[in-house]
Design goal:
Blueprint: H1 2-12, H2 16-31, E1 39-40, H3 53-63, E2 70-77, H4 84-98, E3 105-107, H5 125-128, H6 139-148, E4 163-169, H7 174-192, H8 197-233, E5 239-244, H9 246-280, H10 284-306, E6 311-312, H11 318-343, H12 349-376, H13 384-414, H14 421-424, H15 432-440, H16 442-461, H17 478-489, E7 494-501, H18 537-552, E8 556-560, H19 562-572, H20 580-584, H21 586-589, H22 592-598, E9 603-604, E10 609-616, H23 625-639, E11 647-650, H24 652-686, H25 689-713, H26 724-750, H27 753-762, H28 764-779, H29 788-819
Parallel strand pairs: 1-6
Antiparallel strand pairs: 2-4, 2-5, 3-4, 7-10, 7-11, 8-10, 9-10
Length: about 800
Amino acid sequence: MNRLGALYDRFILPHPWIVLILFGVLLAVAALRFDQFRLDASAESLVLENDRSLEQYRQVNRVFTTSDDFLVVTYTAHEDLFTDTGLGHFRSLRDKLAALSAVSSTNSILSVPLLHSPDLTLDTVDSEIKTLDADDVAPETARQALLNNPMYPNLLISEDAGTTAIQVNLPTPERYFQLLNQRDELRDKVDAGTADAHDRRQLEQVSQEFIRYTDTLGKERDATIAEVRVILDEYRDRATIHLGGVPMIVSDMIRFIQNDLSTFGLGVLAFLLLTLAIIFRQWRWVLVPLLCCSLTVWLMIGFLGWAQWPVTVISSNFVSLLLIMTLSLTIHLIVRYREFQHDEPEAEPGSVLRRTIMAMIKPCFYMAITTIVAFGSLTFSGIRPVIDFGWMMTLGLAVAFVITFLIFPALLSLLPPPLDQCVASDRVPFTDAFARFTEHFGGTVLVGSGVIAVLCVIGLSRLTVENSFIDYFKSSTEIHQGMVVIDDRLGGTSPLDVVITDQPVPENVNDDPFASDCDPFVEDCDEEEYRDTWYTYQKMRQLGQVHDFLDSLPETGKVLSISTTLDLLAQINSGKRLNALELAFVPAAVPADLQEILLTPYISEEQKQARFSIRILETMPDLRRQDLLDRIHTHLTTELGYDDDRIQLSGMTVMYNNMLQSLFDSQIKTIGVVFAAIMVMFLILFRSVTLALIGMAPNLIAAGSVLGLMGWLGIPLDMMTITVAAITVGIAVDDTIHYIHRFKTEFVKDGDYLATMHRCHRSIGQAMFFTSLTIISGFSILVLSNFIPTIYFGLFTGFAMFMALLGSLTLLPRLIILTRPFPSP
């Protein structure tokens, strides 16, 4: 400490302007890359570390030429849609959307083939197909044709024909996939240890180019979505219109996060400053925390810009958390400074400032290190965005500590605060009421803590991880409203693909179709007869069984597969199912322009794969994704006899479920690592097993209370609330360290445990109370967010602060008095 004091005496306290100028230069350098600070809500930002489901999802899209890069416009006409006027308005809307430069094509009831002609047969399918766009089809005839087609109801049109949809295709340019594949190949080389210096340089260049290109695409897509919304507004007087689709959800999520970062970041800061002004009633005690908090956030945003490190949905709250931690440090310094002012009113401001820094740097350093350990535990979660969040907060806390203990003394050297009446007063602080309660009702404190612990355990047993994506958004948002309409009337929202690979070619198979007594193209042959094509009677019958099972599940909406195409062809074939010979010639019989609709999305002869496209009903209240995926897999392997390696489940539903299911495991792993690390830290800091165990008690109660409350309220763990427990521990640890450190310091004066408790509650207890009150007030503004996880984050962080304060001012001192861990002075 002598060397540290000499550092302050020689460089910082005598030369505050130099410190501030150096920081000004550092801030200017950080500001140079503010424009590189970006948000990422892509699929990559929400997957597990080393999770192959994203690559499988992309592979399925490539094989079957499908994509989720489209917007969905739901259209419920106020009058009857199937009239010349109704279809005219609808066509006008479709044409304006199709005219946008970023739109490659649109799909709607106007462009899809209608199968209504009495002359339509398998032989005339090429010439008799009509559409509302190209042919003069009566509206009522078109309505019946669309409803009778097995493909369109609950997809392009509701079963009552009251709601329809326009699919607005926004294709991702090939350049994106070229850069993506090039980057991933180079990453694999680096991970495998086979990359040379040139490969590493190339990876850096390609990664930078990919980031720039992705950012450009994102801005272009946001502009397109804005244009779409302007067009839709022109037609809302004639229909109820909602916008949906993955690009729109990603765009709106980023917009919500940006609002939370800017609007609520500033709102939280404003609430914090207002509370500080009410508590301390001096402009210096508002300005100094403001500058310390602002500089910390400024430097971190600049660093993330320089490092090209995007902020995801999960890490978007790092700004608010940095405000919490920096503010906590500065409030403890302010309260200690005012205590020294009270004890020695005539002392020089420079002397008071030096004593404050020397007295607080040790406990604040311990607090920062222990909180860093708490956030560092998030790197064990296995979820990429949670890992990134852990590293961001670890670095941010280090920056907050350095800034606080450099900027705070530099500013107060230039702006020494006068002695105000509140400091000069000998009035007993109200926090002493907690000490009096603990002294007279110690048994009640212990029993109450035990009851809370039991309730926490019961609540933890009720904690779940299943969560519908729709629950992330308020019912007033367009995302929520659009998903409800799509779920209820157009077959579901979340995509799930089931891909089945054909059985491998048996050894010594005879490729001569005439070598067998049975011709699989004409007869229903035994299943042991192998033919290297999907278009055999027995294979299509098996795929039909899969389709029927998937369609029977209550969680599934619209299910499309080759079976849907065969139902459609049977309808064309006068209602008769295709025989084995007709089935064999389906690829040749279906016109080329219809193959992209009827065959290519469901069958890949080249890859020997069949695909089932499923939409999951997100609004289903009892949706359990993992249970659904397990039931599908089990039925296909046990009931229908498919080998495990022939079945692949893919899509957004699978990736989201993988992340959700890892939350519970990672939460247990994270909390376990946190408490183990904090226990070690306490042993190092306090050098007493008894004190370490005592210090753990309020932390366990605080973390258990948050998770237990979530369990009691039925709020599942999601991608945001997973971080609350670790944050809670970090906050509770701050109070614990400060209180025990002050208790140890005060106890030496007289060796009286009760008197020491009262002195601690009147001094450090005030700082703890002011910190908690300020943060709870500031975070209350987050309830105004449109993003439900952000609301939960604000509420549970405030609750965590309250429980941590309550435990540190009641349970902690009661345990210290009960165990008497300090030696007599």
